[in-house]
Structure formats: C-alpha cells, structure tokens
Amino acid sequence: MKLLKVGAAVLNQTPLAWEDNRRHILEALSLARHQHVSLLCLPELCITGYGCEDMFHAPGVLETAWEMLQSLLPHTQDLVVSLGLPLVYQDGIYNTAALVANGRILGFVAKKYLAGDGIHYEPRWFKPWPAGVCAELEVGGERYPVGDLLFDLSGVRVGFEICEDAWVAKRPGGELASRGIDVILNPSASHFAFGKHAVRQRFVLEGSRAFNVSYVYANLLGNEAGRVIYDGGALIASAGQLLAAGPRLSFTDAHVTSAVIDLEVTRLSRWRSASFKPALEHAEEDLVRAIFDFPHLGWDHAAALDRAGAIAPDDGTPAQDPGLAVAHEAAWEKSAHLKEEEFLRAEALALYDYLRKSRSRGFVLSLSGGADSGAIATLVYMMSVLGMRELGAKPYLAKLAYDKRLEGLDDPKAITRELLACVYQSTRNSGPVTLGAAKGLAEAIGAEFTHFDVDALVEGYKGLLEGSLGRPLSWQTDDVALQNIQARVRAPGVWMLANVRGALLVTTSNRSEAAVGYATMDGDTAGGLAPVAGIDKAYLRRWLEWMETEGPQGFAPLPVLGLITKQAPTAELRPAEQHQTDESDLMPYEVLDAIERAAIRDKKMPLEAFFLMRALFAGRYSDDQLGLWVTRFYRLWSINQWKRERYAPSFHLDDENLDPKTWCRFPILSGGFGLELAKLAAHLDTLKAGAT
Questions:
Q1: CB 3.0-4.6 Å disulfide test: which of 543, 621, 663, 665 passes with 625?
Q2: What does the alpha-carbon distance between residue 71 and residue 201 come to, in Å, rounded to a whole number?
C-alpha cells in the first residue's frame, strides 16, 4: 500500500491581472496544505490568465510571467505543484506547465495539441510541441528541461495531458501509460457549455481506467476575460473510479478538491492487464528524476479511501477530512432541469465577474416588460441571491468594495436596489400590460424603477424628417423608419443614466433576433454587454416559465414572471390596432430556431433545411409556409451580418453561438444564397405543380 494525497485547484483568474492571479494561486497553495495535499494541479496558464490573446506575443508579458513564477517558488515548500505559463524556446512560444517541488523548478511540459476550433485560437499564439522531443532551456544562467517530459519523484511517476491533449483521439496518456506513469495531471482552461461537464467526466474516468493511473483534472473558473465562462468542476479519478468532484460555477476565487489515491492499486492493474506493454525500448532521456519526501499516510486514510469507491448518495453528511471521502454532487446538478440550472448559474457568475472586474457600479437596463429584459433583470437579482448564499454577504460584497453604496447591506433585494436601475421607455404604441409587467418585476426583485415617456422625442424627430422631405411619414410608406426611431430614441437616455451612475448598460438582444437582424442598431442593441445574446428566444421563454413556477434547487420561484410569460412577444413599435407580435413579423420562434440550427450550426443549404423542416413540422405547416420561412431566414441572415459584428460582447453558452468574434464567422458581403434559394424556389414550384 502506497498512499498519496493529490489535489486539483480551480481558480478565478483574469488576463494580465498579475497580483490578483498570484494571490489566488497562493490561496490554493494554502488550501492544499490545509487538506494535507502533497501533489497539486493548478489550471492551464494560471499565472498569466488563459485569455491574454495577442498579448501573449508581448515580450513584457512573457518576462512578467517568468518573474511571477519565480516569486511563487518559495511558497511551494513541501509541495509538488503544476503552474501554467507561456514560455519562449528557440523563438517559439509554448503553452507549458512547470512542475515545481520544494521551491525548485523540475521542468516544463509543453502542450502538444493546441485548441484551434470554436472559441479557441491557440495556434495564433503558441506552437505545438512535437511528441518525444526534449530540450534544455537556459534562463538567467540556470538550465531547465523542457518539452515532452515525465517525472520520477522518489519512485512516484507523474505525467501531463494539458487540456486539449485529453480531447484528441490519440491522447498522450497512452504513451505515458506505457512508461508506468502513476498520476496524470491535466491543467485545463475548458470553457462552459451546456452538458459539457459530463463529457469531461467521461474522459477523466476513461483515462484513469484505460491508462491504469490516477487522474487529476483542474480547470479555470468564472468569467475570465469577458465572453467565456469557465465552470471549474475539478475531478480526481483512479482506476476508473471517481474519487472526488469539485463544485461548479462557484463564486469563490480558489477552491481545492482533494483525494487519497493508492498507487499500488493502479500498478497492480497494469501488472494484471494482458494489454499493458511497458515501453522497455525507451531510453528515458525524457525522465526527470527528483527526490521528494511524500508524507506517510496511515491505515485510517486507507479505510476512508476504501469507503469512497465511487460517487456516494447526497445524504448531506460532511466528510471528516476533505478529500478522503467522495465529494458529493450538488443537488442542482441532479435536477431534471439541469440546463435551466446551468443557464442560471453560469449567467449569474458571468455577470458578477464582469461587474467586479470592470469595476462598474451596477447595471442599467431598458426593462420593456418582455422576455429578454425580464430574464436579464431576473439574472441580475439571482446573481446576488446565489452569491450571498454561497459566500455570505460580507465576502460577496468584499469583491465589490469599490462601490461604497453596498456597505453594510445583507439582503439580495437591497443589493439589487443599488446595482440594477430599470427604465421602462414608452411611446404612444406602448401598452399597460408591458408597463405593469416591467414595474411588477422590478418591485418584486427590489430593483430601482423609472418610467421615461419618450413619445415627444419620437414626434420631434418625425417632424424634423417630414420638414426635410416635404411630406408626412406614414405606416404605409415608412414602416421600418417609424419603428426604428422609437427604438433609437430610447438609447440616449439610458446611456446617460449609465454614465451618471458609472454603471454597465446591458442590451437585451437574444440569439434568435441576432440571426435575422430583428433588432434596431443603436436602439435596442445599445449597450456594453449582451448577457442573453447567446441563447434562443424559445428557450429563454421556457426558462422564465421554469423560474416562475418551479425555480432553482433550494430557492423559491418568482411567480411575478407570469406577467411576462403570459404575453405574446412583441416589440410594441407599431400602433396597437396592428396587433404586432415578433412571430407575425418573422415566423414562430420554434421554427426560426430550428432553421437557424440547420443553416448555421449544421451548415445546411436552403433546400436541405426545407426538407428538415418538413420532417420536423409535418402536418403543422404547409410546404408553402415552410418554404417562405426558410427563404426569409437565409435572406435575413445574409444581409444582417453587419449587425452581428456590432453587437456588444455576449457570453458563450454552447455551440450554437452566433458571435462572429469568437465562434461563428460569416462574410458581411456575400451572394446571399442566391443560387441555393433559386433551387428551393424551383422545388417548391415542382411541389405545387404536382399538387395540382
């Protein structure tokens, strides 16, 4: 029996925030010592932050990262720690993990497989390190091994898979296994997406089983750089069994999940395995040997480890020693409404981090009484509800200490009163239902509420243009212009309010509207942050209904949201007698979202999308109607890319994101699917001819 206590740290880092990042690393080291951890894995690029983008090319950034690493070394006594930073070797920049023990750098492992798809652009900044290559780096007169390394620490063998390395088909873990590795460390910066955590669990568990190792996975946490959310979720597995799982979407700066592993169990698995073939031919020039005195763990630790085995029921019983027993999965992660829970918690954490890292004094929101703005108001309120429940009022507000208005507050509604200013902006086309919904929600969550009547401003601009044109404007001839001016006159007032308050103006655009350009530029798109631009309208309405009737685990629902969910979505920009709704202007949102997924996510051409819509909505809509909507979508998508390019930053939630800066690129000027839409039109004509 050879027992070892390992740990995985999650950190809420910020690109180039050197002192904050260093402080969080030191907090993780302290937590690890408190839990008697000997071997600790920290997240990928934890010293600089993962999202430095082109600043990775700045010599000053690389130099400061090295200085920060040196400053951390004295704090690693009695620990073996993985610390991530960029490193230059022969004029190439590499994404590396430094393994440090007792204040000394043992070597740098460089990432082999770079993430270059989706939101990731690592090949823009880093070079992939070739497998099997080892070198020596000289800095300040000291020489360090660098490259494809593994480590022998007094007989305990440690190797690395750095984030993407574990997601590829030919994982480095297979080669490490043949070298008799005991522990694989995976420092990661793996972004949040709906359902992604289950995928991570599978590759951690399968890696530990197939490679006959113990596997330690550490991830970033929070809204690191503005758009991307990291959910943490540290994992420790051994021989195919999950020993510990850390919390996800936490409001903390640092958290360490730990567990005791038995090295002899995984070694015995290799001895017994007929498929295990040691790499006897390897010369081991890539093996870094060092002496490290791992503490002796006794029979009580072994008994606790034996009890752990796999995930235990969530009976609320705390472990006597953190990391000895299996970490219980949070109740919300077992919910039948996991996506709703994840959306709430990811958005709340992202808003909190964006607020404090930008040092803004709250949010300003045009609260229309509709689903989009109602969802954002709810999320801002729940940000404080969730954060205070987890951290307590004082620690939660300590991160917002620059905003003196919040001192001494201990109630989420009181905090929301200071942090969220809601403005309902009416014209003659606005109705009492939306006003009542906006005011009712603001009162229920404690937000400040103001009513601006902007109709005179609309009429003023209308009069200016009529005088210039020499004719009256009418809904028959100037529909779009008359709608847009109402949205645009709402922007200056809320911008001014945001400026006066030193607050963030948030825009309410959702993904469905972005896809077809159903938004007024410099009107309802005005703002510095678009919290719900990554989510479709149909889902957003379902989420509001869930918040209204059921609510998240451990919290009461918000029945006041019924004032919103019972309405048909409408922009209220045309006269009331025209009965304007979003879906009458466009198409049913469920159809719009289905066409969007087919066209943009799955890259189907118009005729292919039409066939899919026929299959999905058979018997509900005619061929002519579906053909019209498919044609409308592709045309609107093509002519509105310029709008998507100008949207405020949004949060990445899944692979259906339309943000052209991080996920979905499309030319501003294009042929607009002209040939492809002609094929669809010809097919529709054929269907009509056949019907007659």
A1: 621
A2: 34
